[in-house]
Design a protein that fits this description.
The chain has eleven helices and two strands, in the order E-E-H-H-H-H-H-H-H-H-H-H-H. It has 292 residues and is mainly α. The protein folds into two domains: 34-70; 77-291, Orthogonal Bundle (MetI-like fold). Helix 6 crosses helix 7. The protein is flat, with a radius of gyration of 28 Å.
Length: 292
């Protein structure tokens, strides 16, 4: 018995009982074998991470202000900013509606134009040669530099802000759409064609679902740029909107108002991001198991 060769990862003790050696890896419980309670606790923990991170950032902000005794005209504390949010709630809400309308309208125009154009460029070599080069050339032009021209052409109304938002968000979503519609392996197309599927069926059940994750990645990027574009457009020229309030607070050294506007802008960005993520969750059910 003592001359019995050892099994890899195990050794046979003199008493005859098998014991795993120290070199062998410890057995792990597969994700699929976890109990429902453990999976539920894990999901709750993941969902609590974003608010916990936010609370930590606020506490660090408060600690920096208190420990270093920073004056309020340089960096107000979280309590002062929250009080200003309550005091100027009506003002911030009125101007938030203007900025949010500019973001949503410009972003909606980007979605309904960039995704179909990306499909056309991805599937048509002729369109790729005729349409894509001029778009690339337009992308090289600094949008902020030509923003004053939009005021001359369209005035100080919402139109100039929406146009700048579209121009800044269009190209990232277009590139993501082109990449998404080209990501499918040609062998899948040959397979569906051999099975008698029509072009519409191939697009509906194969190409479009395969492109959705990449497209939504572009939508998230464009959504972040949309909020920035609307604020920058209001910086150039506006008499309402959060960008206008931000400039007014900066010119009068009202730093508490500036930080209140930044908090509102952050909340707007968070809400837009969560709406996009919910749409992705609803339209890509096959990816839910990967994210749990």
């Amino acid at each position: 018995m003592a001359n019995t060769p050892a099994v890899e990862g195990d050794r046979l003790h003199p008493a005859g009982s098998w014991q795993r050696s120290a070199a062998a890896p410890a057995p792990t419980v597969p994700h699929a074998r976890r109990s429902p309670a453990m999976r539920r606790l894990r999901r709750i923990g993941w969902n609590l991470l974003p608010p916990a991170t936010f609370v930590t950032m606020v506490l660090l902000w408060w600690a920096v202000v208190v420990l270093f005794k920073i004056p309020a005209y340089l960096l107000p504390g979280p309590g002062d900013v929250f009080a200003r949010l309550v005091t100027d709630a009506s003002l911030l809400w009125t101007h938030s509606q203007v900025t949010l309308a500019e973001i949503l309208l410009g972003f909606a125009i980007t979605i309904v134009t960039a995704i179909p154009l990306g499909l056309l460029i991805a599937l048509s070599p002729l369109s790729r040669q005729l349409v894509y080069p001029p778009i690339m050339l337009m992308q090289l032009v600094p949008k902020i530099a030509v923003a004053p021209l939009f005021l001359v052409w369209l005035g100080f109304g919402m139109e100039s802000k929406v146009l700048l938002t579209v121009l800044l968000t269009f190209f990232p979503l277009l590139v993501a759409s082109i990449s998404g519609f080209q990501i499918l392996d040609d062998r899948f197309l040959y397979l569906t064609k051999s099975m008698g599927a029509s072009s519409w069926q191939t697009f509906r059940y194969l190409r479009f679902p395969a492109a959705l994750p990449v497209i939504f990645a572009g939508i998230k990027t464009s959504a972040t740029i949309a909020a920035t574009a609307a604020i920058v457009a209001e910086f150039v020229g506006a008499n309402k909107g959060l960008g206008y309030v931000l400039l007014r607070g900066t010119s009068t050294m009202d730093i508490e108002l500036v930080f209140a506007v930044l908090v509102v802008l952050t909340l707007v960005g968070v809400v837009i991001n969560y709406v996009v993520e919910f749409c992705e969750w609803a339209m890509t059910p096959w990816q839910r198991s990967r994210n749990t």
